[in-house]
Here is the input.
Amino acid sequence: MISCISPKKVACGTNKFDASITGVPYYDAMLCKEKIVGKYKDDPKGYFRSKGIEFGIQCITPEEYFIEVAKFHTTHPEFEKLKVMRSYVEDYKDRVLKCSPMPLPILDYKDRVQEGRHRAMAALELGIQKMPVLVIRRYKK
Here is the structure.
């Protein structure tokens, strides 16, 4: 049995986000988009756990996303919003309006990495209440 995250289990951001892909191969492996070889080929969660990583999809508001990103960078959420490029936000909004979902945003607490400010801003502007986010943390044995 493969222990992948099932996009069908994600209830927030319905059809606005594709919870099966982030667009970043390392993180897509967590969602079973990239193949893991060796003894963990049927257990991606086990592979990442062996590396000290745990992950899951969490539903948060776009505002909460900016708050968490600001913590990574020791800044203010409003400053993080200033870092988005309008053209990318508009592209994501157009994509959603054409019924093409956005890739899953990422909050990686282990490495203090985020990928998704533009998606969060698009969600905020589209009035999306909650959005699914791939959250990565250190695995506690």
The first helix runs from residue 25 to 28. The radius of gyration is 15 Å. DSSP finds six helices and six strands in the chain.
